[in-house]
Structures are given as C-alpha cells and as structure tokens.
Design a protein that fits this description.
The protein is α+β, with helices and mostly antiparallel strands and 129 residues long. The chain has helices spanning 20-24, 28-40, 53-66, 87-94; strands at residues 15-18, 44-47, 75-80, 103-108, 112-117, 122-126.
C-alpha cells in the first residue's frame, strides 16, 4: 500500500482511513502489523469494516507485548456497531443475517484523551504529542 506523506505532520494528527477492500487481501497478522505500524507512528487508524473478534483479540495481545514506557503506550480501540452482545445480534447470527459491516477506530493511547461511543457516534478527542 502506498503511504501517504504529509508535508508537515507536526501541525496535526494523521488519520488513515483503510478500506475493506485493502484489508481483504491480508492475513490476520498483516492486518495487525498494518494497524500497529500506523498507530506507532502516531496516526489514528479507521477501518471501514473492522476486524473479526479473533483478530481484535490478537491485536490487543500483540499490542501488550510491544508496550514500552518510553516508546509505545498502547492503543485505544472502539468499534461501531458493537459486536456480539444483545439478543437481536445473536438471533440475527443464528438466522444467518450476519453483518460484518462495522467501523473501528484505533489510536495511540497517549493521544486519545476521550473516546466516547453511543448508539450512533464514535467521538474521539485527539491531542498532538
């Protein structure tokens, strides 16, 4: 994937919007590496279609092994719509109405000051390093 380079990244926060088509051809570990490399660079990563629950768990596991006090503080992650949970989602999956469409926002833990989610909105207050 060609990388977008900005002329002066110190003036703002870079947001990487990654399409579902881009993620389709990648293995789980390639997806995790793509996400973590972006977040480690201080970018906010937005996935059009999110990750499978197993991939999200693996992302958190890999993140925990890479945390270092001086370099990488970890990630904040939020997904909309919320995966799993309520009876409607479970019934839908049982009936074969499985929807994989979801939006996932991932960013550096030390830059996301607030991450709020309600029924229709993910809101993040992001600071510059």
């Amino acid at each position: 994937m060609p990388e977008a380079k900005s002329g002066n990244s110190s003036n703002g926060v870079q947001i990487d919007l990654i399409s579902g088509a881009r993620m389709d051809g990648l293995t789980s570990m390639e997806k995790i590496r793509l996400i973590l490399d972006g977040v480690r660079d201080g970018n906010i990563v937005v996935l059009e279609e999110g990750l499978a629950p197993e991939e999200e768990s693996k992302l958190i596991e890999v993140t925990m092994t890479e945390i270092s006090p001086d370099e990488f503080n970890g990630i904040e992650i939020e997904t909309y719509p919320q995966t799993g949970g309520g009876n409607k989602g479970l019934l839908g999956r049982i009936m074969g109405n499985k929807s994989t469409k979801k939006l996932t926002v991932i960013g550096p833990a030390n830059q996301i000051e607030t991450l709020h989610k309600d029924e229709n909105l993910i809101s993040a207050l992001v600071s510059r390093k």
